[in-house]
Amino acid sequence: MASLSESEVTNRGSMWELDQNLDQPMDEEAGRLKNMYREKKFSSVLLLRLAFQSLGVVFGDLGTSPLYVFYNIFPRGVDNDEDVIGALSLIIYTLTLIPLLKYVFVVLRANDNGQGGTFALYSLLCRHAKINTIPNQHRTDEELTTYSRQTYEENSVAAKIKIWLEAHAYKRNILLILVLIGTCTAIGDGILTPAISVLSASGGIKVQNQNMSTDVVVLVAVVILIGLFSMQHYGTDKVGWLFAPIVLLWFILIGSVGAVNIHKYNNSVLKAYNPVHIYRFFRRRWNSDIWTSLGGVMLSVTGTEALYADLCHFPVQAIQIAFTLIVFPCLLLAYTGQAAYIISNKQHVVDAFYRSIPDAIYWPAFVIATAAAIVASQATISATYSIIKQALALGCFPRVKIVHTSKKFLGQIYIPDINWVLLVLCIAVTAGFKNQSQIGNAYGTAVVIVMLVTTFLMVPIMLLVWKSHWVVVVTFIVLSLMVEAPYFVACILKIDQGGWVPLVVAMAFFLIMYVWHFCTVKRYEFEMHSKVSMAWILGLGPSLGLVRVPGIGFVYTELASGVPHIFSHFITNLPAIHSVVVFVCVKYLPVYTVPTEERFLVRRIGPKNFHMFRCVARYGYKDLHKRDEDFEKMLFDCVLFFVRLESMMEGYSDSDEFSVPEQRTTGGNAFMAERMTCNTMCSNGELSFSSQDSIVPAQSPPVRGARWSTSAAGQGSTVGDELEFLNRCKDAGVVHILGNTIVRARRDAGVVKKLAVDYMYAFMRRMCRENSVIFNVPHESLLNVGQIYYI
């Protein structure tokens, strides 16, 4: 740093002291933030408490599978005892291999700071390789406390895989398509889980009254579904405290009944724990309906993917404890007890669960089963909302209304539009099929596709993130496919028996997501290619007679660098700019959250007397815009803080001739300060111009009826003058300028592209929410700038 005279040191002593005070706590605060987002250590008592709470959120779907599994394995009845024992052996080892070994002890480790699901895996990959299809990331984004990634040696396998993935755009697109397939199929789970769980639980009414019509059971299920979806706007926080006791009571019930049935009916079923019976089961039924039986066995692990998707609510250790100590043993007892009952009562395989319950506790068991089915449905519906939110954040879904249902937990959300779509589809599936068998076929297809997608995504995760040896990776994928591939074949062979439902639903959502993402990428590319340089903007001053009008103009753009085309389009048609112009970019990063204190980056564009700034607001895929957030005030406060911070940084650079970018974190905001001198000025490294470049300088707004001053706030103005100037501009009025880019297909485009862009995307654009509504922009302060882009 250049040496200072004694007088300068004396005059600047207080400022230097303040600067040091600002610098000192920054490392400490950054350390606290990083520790905040590391995996926390929990005491044993707290882990047990969290494990208990996880029962109501994570395991409801998996726990209600005994309601319908055996009926779907033997839809045509049971021929002999060995078939039941073989099916039970398949269930036991499927539960052991998929939920216990694969998910609980392997896949759950592949979490994004505690977030699970397909999009969490994708965000991990996007941070470790440049595979994001919207390249709007900057090196400053990698300095976030939640932006964690690995480094690689040059010739390592991970480095080669990274280079291979980044080499061609088609590889990135294939990966995105794989993620969207898993996501869309998981949304199908949100439709089928309530349908089959509630219908199976409602079937208990008919067991005690054999003369009752099936339509009555369906009607009861539909009523329960309508009530369930109608209560969604209240959120799970209102009744969430009931979920864990209900599910715990459910597991105790099915485990106890299973143990009683083993002792009461036939304890010879315990030989099913010998895996040799799986081989015998395949040998006996290979020429008959082995694939039908496999599809039924697949239903015993439904809810496993939801276990991973709902990981965000609890630490991995809590879920592992709950599964190994309560869920897994109770499920084994339940299935073993049902098998013992079926061997003694083969004619009751259709409703074996309710038939096996002792008469003394039948109706209490029916109530608990119905409550558990509702809890299981609630968990899947909530996971569907979360999936839609993540897809929206990554530019893969139209903007829809998102409502917070809890002030304590920001992750609890409600999406009205999606809620009613799910309700309609659930009722259609329940009333259309009317039986568990066809819904079970559909359910199994959805579950196995999501599992296969997770298996394939785990391969790059293990190589890039975990840096696992290739032998371990090959072992994992071979063992996973050995189990999942036969189930996939079994489900695909049942497409004509109900398996087509999740495929149709997934295809519909896939088209929506892919078309929306495709047009979003094309819009971003248009913005990138048509952005204009600051030199061109500055040169327009004298030629068009630009006038700086009172107030602040927030210009919204998808670009984190450069001047958007909408701004040049705006001043060309209306040759005037506001006294203060702030380019605002709102972008989502492949992280689950951006801490509030690191959300905004602010920099100055041009010399001080231009009063032009850039503000980048960064969000993670779990972050939400709260209804009570004053986005306008947050932006303005960030600019004010930047000006104060910039003034404190002046005079302390290594050279007075060149600008020095620095980053500071204080007062709850992090900013990138880019200072510019009169002789050499640059913005984002794109532009150089001298102080002789002309533009009409911003003038001070009138105060208390005074006339506009003809003198500009010059380069030598103090920070107090600029802050006062900014406040007067805010009092004069704020205008939000939003670009309204309409995408159209070219005349020579194909029929498919025209249908997708001109009709499907245009319809979704009309139906989705505007950005102005999401950011709570007052309608009277909104100015839309329209333009058409042909692709």
UniProtKB/TrEMBL annotation:
This protein's UniProt keywords: Ion transport, Membrane, Potassium, Potassium transport, Transmembrane, Transmembrane helix, Transport
InterPro entries assigned to the protein according to its UniProt record, in alphabetical order: K+_transporter, K_trans_C, K_trans_N
Membrane topology qualifier: Multi-pass membrane protein
Role: Potassium transporter.
K+ potassium transporter C-terminal domain: residues covered: 550-791
Main location: membrane
The keyword Transport is assigned to this record: yes
Family: Belongs to the HAK/KUP transporter (TC 2.A.72.3) family.
Any single GO CC term annotated in Swiss-Prot or TrEMBL for this entry: membrane
Pfam families per the UniProt record, alphabetical: K_trans, K_trans_C
The protein's name: Potassium transporter
Spans through the membrane: 42-64, 84-105, 174-196, 216-234, 241-262, 290-309, 321-343, 363-388, 409-431, 443-466, 473-495, 501-521, 533-556, 576-594
Lineage: superkingdom: Eukaryota
UniProt GO molecular function: potassium ion transmembrane transporter activity
Places the protein is found: Membrane
Chain coiled-coil ranges: none
Domain K+ potassium transporter integral membrane: 50-537
Record flagged with keyword Protein transport: no
